[in-house]
Amino acid sequence: MPRDATAAPRADRLRNRERLLGAAMEVVARDGAQASMEEIARRAGVGSATLHRHFASRRALLEAVFADGVDTLCARAEALRRAEPATALWTWLDEFVHYVATTRGVVEVLLAEPAADAPVCHTDRVRAAVRPLVAAAAAAGGLHPDARPEDVVALTAVVSTAAGEDPSTARRLLRLTVDGLRGAGCGRTQA
Questions:
Q1: Distance of CA 181 to the CA centre of its chain
Q2: Which residues contact 16 (CB under 8 A, 6 or more apart)?
Q3: What is the DSSP string of 83-100?
Q4: What is the value of pTM for the model shown?
Q5: What is the pLDDT of residues 64-94, one digit of tens each?
Q6: DSSP state of 189
Q7: What interhelical angle do 37-44 and 58-80 show, nearest 10?
Q8: Highest mean pLDDT range out of 44-53, 116-125, 175-184?
């Protein structure tokens, strides 16, 4: 008898998906976007067919891995809203560049192969998460008055991309960018 399409997913199906995502995060962190799909299935303790039922393509799996990381970053931004504003923003930005640098080519794959049904790198979600941190840091005088959330996300994404897969370079470049965003030692210029 066919299952009702509106019924909740079976518990074993949900467990398999979670195991696949967990394994994919580990293997992608180690091997990058070209991680072996077979190794991911093996590490999750499922067959290759199960992996492909959950994720029709490598891109779909990478999108799910990246989306899970974005969920974590958004939750972290929410938690940091209770901290001192400038420290909260810079802590979150540091975590953001570290995350992008350690996704080892996932961002590049997602940008190179955009899917019509998936938001490219969840930029809108990231901007929405950082918006309150930017506003609080600006109100506290810890951010250049001209900086907008989309500027902060764009600059941080550029830093992450420029650093490649090197988290220490990403953090060093972020420190330099942060000095500019804070307006340290800079006077406002006329356009």
A1: 21
A2: 44, 46, 50, 54
A3: S-HHHHHHHHHHHHHHHH
A4: 0.74
A5: 888 888 899 999 999 999 999 989 998 999 8
A6: P
A7: 60
A8: 44-53
Q: Are 95 and 136 in contact (CB under 8 A)?
A: no
Integer Cα distance of 58 and 63 in angstroms: 9
What's at 107, amino acid-wise? V
Could you tell me the maximum CA-CA distance found in the chain, to the nearest angstrom? 72
Taking the C-alpha atoms of residue 104 and residue 98, their distance in angstroms, rounded to an integer, is: 11
Rounded Cα distance between 34 and 132, Å, is 35
Residue with tokens 């967990």: 22
Burial 78-97 (b: 16+ CB within 10 A, else e): eebeeeebbebbbbbbbebb
One-letter amino acid at 104 equals R
Query: How confident is residue 115, by pLDDT bands cut at 50, 70 and 90?
Result: low
pLDDT at 188 over 50: no
Residue of 158, 173, 165, 156 whose CA lies nearest to 33: 165
Angle, alpha carbons 66-177-128 (nearest 5°): 45
